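Notebook entry, structure prediction.
Reason for the run: the old model in the group folder had no record of what sequence produced it. Starting over properly, with the input documented here first.
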Amino acid sequence: MNNIKEKQDQHESMIQAVKFFFFSLSAGIIQAISFTLLFEIGKLIYWPAYLIALTLSVLWNYTLNRKFTFKSANNIPIAMLKVALFYAVFTPLSTWWGDALTKIHWNEYLVLFLTMVTNLITEFLYTKYYVYKNSINSAIHNDMLV
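New structure, fully documented this time:
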């Protein structure tokens, strides 16, 4: 019986990872396009173009993953605060290393891509195991009660 529950949990975790990946991919497209527009057309330097693009992608990604990946009905302001805490650490660090790497002539798009991959992995783990730890699928259960 316990083995069946473990397999169901593994299957659900795999589905969450796949959904998170595809929603993050869509957020990455938003981030890459907005970064390109700001950097190439707007002629902003790396770090402000990156910050604006990151903000747009985070809002998109948070909204989709809360509703469709983790199906959480927990307190939205608290969940948003937890995500904001992640980005309070990730944003300055990634802005710093991105700016530092581009100043030593790393390609801006390579830096952006590597930063986005780092963000994808760390945000998934943080979101699953901290932000929504006790509320995954709570929206499903609340829908059944209504």
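Summary: The chain is about 85% helix and 0% strand.
The old model has been moved to the deprecated folder.
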